[in-house]
Each structure stands twice: as C-alpha cells, then as structure tokens.
Amino acid sequence: MQNYILLLQTLVSNVLRYARFIPKFALFSCQHLTTDSDQVEVSADTPAKDFWSVIVYSTKTKGFIVGKATLGLSSRNTETMQNNADGSYDVYFGPEAPEGKESNWIPSGEDFFLLFRLYGPTSKDFYKTWMLGDVEKIK
Asked: Facing residues of 28 across strands?
C-alpha cells in the first residue's frame, strides 16, 4: 500500500472571532502521527498580534494526551525555544525529543493530531498570503 499524506487545512473562527484555528490532520497509510518523529516549521512572519500556539490532541479521545508534561508550545515560549537563523521555529512531535531540541518538542506517544491557533490575527484574510508549513517526518 502506498504511503500518502492527507493534509486538511480548515479555517474556523471561534464565537468571539478572537482566534483563528487551523487544524492540521496528517494521515500516513491511514495511521495518524504517532510512531515516528515529525516537525512543522512556524515562520517568523506568522500573522499573530497576540500569539500563536500548537497543541497535540489524542485522536482517540479528541482531548489532551494524558500523562504528558507538555501539551503544546506557543510564541509565548520563544524565550526558551531554539529559533532558526531566519527567525522561524521548528516544533517537533513524537515519543522522544530530537537530541538538543527538547525545548521545541511536544511529546506524543499515541495517535494524535495538531491544532495550530493564531490569537489576534493581523488581518481577516491572512490565509490568502500565509500558510503554516506541512508536517514533515524527521529524517
């Protein structure tokens, strides 16, 4: 069976229209992200006046993954995170943190999906000029 990635990006605003939600679901041969380590790059020009966040949710319960110390990361964590030369941040997901990247890692350990949020987006049509990077396997 061929491995494939199905990326579904949907824009949903909450009742208060304060946050814009961009769910990213990735399926690998009908399996959600879990056994391998993955990453997503959050660009320096992410259009959030207040902050951005990425949180890992259990595919089974649709809630937080139980027993993990870190549920997500946000631009409020950038003082302790490692950034790239261009100002972007690589956020890692998986059962183990990549060596030296623990500050940018969100533990998983079971089937999960990501929810990336922008709080206070810089414009109502930011999605026309900006897109979150794809979830990629760490080699």
From this structure: 5, 31
Is 136 a member of any domain? no
C-alpha 81/C-alpha 101 separation (Å) is 8
At 5-50, the pLDDT tens digits run 222 222 233 333 445 555 543 332 223 455 567 888 999 999 888 8
Q: Is residue 77 part of a domain?
A: yes
At 23, which helix (H) or strand (E)? Answer: strand 19-25
Distances in whole angstroms, Cα of residue 42 to Cα of each of 8, 71, 114: 17, 17, 13
Contact 21, 11 (CB under 8 A): yes
Quickly tell me which residue has 């605003």 as its tokens.
Answer: 13
CATH number at residue 45: 2.60.120.600
Report if residue 132 sits inside a domain. no
Residue-wise pLDDT tens digits, 55-82: 888 888 888 988 888 899 999 999 999 9
Using the structure block, give the residue that is written with the tokens 């030369």: 85
The answer, as to whether pTM is greater than 0.85, is no
CA 106-109-113 angle, 5° bins: 65
